[in-house]
Write a structure and sequence with these properties.
alpha/beta, 4-stranded parallel sheet, 5 helices, 31% helix, globular
Length: 179
């Protein structure tokens, strides 16, 4: 998902139907797949951001407000335009590779507040920062909000595994995770 705080979904060719009069995808077949995967014990998360696109928040309020939209469209909230109908996702992954760092901590804190209203279900927040340390877009958020999982992208950058042992900076991220 990119384009936020607007909703711009991209599921390649797996879903090409829209809610009438909107640019919001409606994906009942993906909804069935989500439920099947969850019935097999698999968690299903939605990735926000990506390597291309224009997205981000102009303020903390905009980030927090967008968490309400995401909760209503993809989790246990209510919306008349839910891309996956009544399927409820297990989490969000932030793959922020552009824009500015503003608003992401507020987004996570508000989303966690929504998660807390459903104590019978485990929800996740993950991140996929680039390997330069600290990450230009998520660095402050990683230090100020709780993530369940962090999957550092040790590729496509000078500090990736392809630079081992020279610039490869696994130790920086390992130290961050331990402290």
């Amino acid at each position: 998902m990119d384009g936020f705080p607007n909703i711009l979904l991209n599921f390649a060719n797996a879903c090409e139907d829209y809610f009438e009069g909107t640019g919001i995808l409606h994906c009942p077949k993906i909804a069935q797949d989500i439920k099947y995967c969850q019935s097999q014990g698999k968690a299903v998360v939605l990735s926000m951001g990506g390597a291309s696109g224009a997205y981000g928040f102009s303020s903390n309020k905009e980030g927090a407000d967008f968490a309400d939209v995401v909760w209503n469209m993809f989790f246990k909230g209510e919306s008349d335009k839910r891309p996956f109908d009544d399927a409820v996702l297990d989490g969000i992954d932030l793959d922020i590779e552009g824009g500015a760092p503003t608003g992401y901590s507020a987004f996570i804190k508000r989303l966690r507040a929504h998660y807390a209203t459903d104590p019978d279900r485990k929800y996740y927040i993950a991140a996929a920062p680039q390997c330069p340390f600290p990450d230009a877009y998520l660095g402050s958020t990683l230090n100020n909000a709780w993530f369940d999982m962090v999957f550092v992208q040790f590729y496509n950058n000078y500090c990736g595994v392809n630079s081992y042992p020279g610039w490869f900076n696994f130790k920086d991220w390992d130290n961050w995770a331990k402290t």
